[in-house]
Structures are given as C-alpha cells and as structure tokens.
Amino acid sequence: MKLNNKKILLTGASGGIGRELAAALDAAGARICLAGRNEQKLMALKDSLPHASRHFCLAVDLTQDDDLERLNQAGLQYQKEGQGFDIVINNAGANQFACLTDRSMQSVRDELNLNLTAPVLVSKLACGWLNRPGIILNIGSTFGGIGYPGYSVYCAAKSGVYRFSEALDRELYGSGVRALYIAPRATETSLNSPEVQAMNQDLKNQSDSPQLVAKMVVDSLEQERAVRWIGWPEKLFVRVNQILPGVVAGSIQKQHAKIMSYLKK
User: In this structure, is residue 32 part of a structural domain?
Assistant: First the structure.
C-alpha cells in the first residue's frame, strides 16, 4: 500500500520505536493520529515532525474500556465524514525483565493487558471503521517466537499477538483488510533497563536502532508482508525453535547462569 496521504492510527506513538515510526510515516506523506497515554509527549512529538499540520493527537489508555470506546467513536466519526483510517499500527507495549516468581499478580495482568489484550481489542474495533483496502499491523517481538528466561509474560503476550495476527489475516481474507505482523529483535530504546542493556552486551546479543525498525515497518506496510522477523541470526533461531526447540533450549541453557545473575541484580 502506498502511504502517501494515507490516514494512520499509531498507538504507543511517544515511545522509542513510536517516535521514529512517526518520523518515517511523516516522511512517507502519511497523516498520523498519534495515540498514547501522555498528551504532552504526543503534542511535543507532533510539533517536532516536519509536516506537523498533517497530524493530530489522541490521548488514550488502551487498557481502559472508556478510552477504547472513545477511540472507537473517533474512528466511526472519521469514517462517517469520509476521512476514515486506512491503517492501524498496534505499537503500544511494555515489558519487565524479571522472574515470574518475583512478579506481582497485578504487574502480570497489566503487561498482558497492554501487550496482548489491547491490540486484539483495537483490531476488533478497527474492523468496524477501517477503509477498504485497509491494514492492521501488529508489532511483536522475536520473543514471540522464542521463549526466553526473564521474559515469560512478554513472550506469552507477543506469541499470542503473532498467532492472533496470523489467524485474523486468514479470517479477513477477501474483506479488503489485511492483518500483518512484524517482530523486531532487541531494540535500542528506554524499554530496556540498564541491566538488560548490560546483559545484551555481555552475551553479545545484537540489537537494532529504532530508526531501522521504523524503516522495516514502513517497508512491510508498503509490501503488505504478512509476517516479518527482523535481525540475523534471530530470525533463523525462530525457525529452528519451531522445528528443533531442543537446539535453541540448549543454546539458552549455556547462558542460563549469566542471565540469572542479571535477573538477580
């Protein structure tokens, strides 16, 4: 899909990937609804974009039913006015690097709600007001294809988003709406704690800049690629993990002591 003059809803817009994605979409000629929890950060992001007048902000908490309904009503109103959304990018997310036994019940619920339930519900609502042709793109993670110590809840959420996107794309066949999935590996954003950054350096885990991830997202939208895994050798490990999970488990087990040392910090 050509992005010039397309109207795009971008959730999690003020985060590390979100900011760079907003810049990339702005450069592609899109009109963006910058959505997130913090209105001040959204406004600052909008004003920083070269074509700020093309964009607008929507302060919503996607884990709250009232805010989801506000988003839904906005989508319906734009559609009624002939200015409906062409693309929805479910980018909002967060994670906590911790052993499951050290997590509170509420922190587990919150992470699942934001990373899994929210994109499912936003996708459901979007099916009612997206223009045809339209695209729903869900941003996942390599951890959606590889279970990793310290990220059990995040892995559960992102693997759910992966299969949800696959199922929804097949369900919507012939409707004019595509559901796509893109999975970055570790990305250089504030989402990673200092402990995680130090662990990645120690284990020589590769990471990508948010600018590169944003470029890949734009490319996936333009090509309408159903699934895309970012990063080598991570994309290979995802495939190996599906066929020979013991091989990947053995590799991670060799790192187990170091991973646990960072989890205990």
Answer: yes
Tokens of 125: 């609502």
Say if residues 175 and 130 touch (Cβ distance below 8 Å): no
Question: How is residue 53 annotated by DSSP?
Answer: G
> Does some domain include residue 2?
no
C-alpha span between 86 and 1 (Å, rounded): 10
pLDDT tens profile 229-263 = 998 888 899 999 999 999 999 999 999 999 999 99
- Cβ atoms < 10 Å from Cβ of 264: 9
Specify the pTM: 0.94
Task: Report the amino acid identity of residue 258.
Answer: K
* Burial bucket for residue 81 (CB in 10 Å: 0-12, 13-18, 19+): exposed
Residue 57 identity (one-letter amino acid): C
Query: Could you list the residue range(s) of the whole structural domain that residue 199 is in?
Result: 7-263
Q: Which two tokens stand for residue 30?
A: 């899109």
pLDDT digits (tens, 9 = 90+) for 139-176: 999 999 999 999 999 999 999 999 999 999 999 999 99
Q: Do the domain assignments include residue 1?
A: no
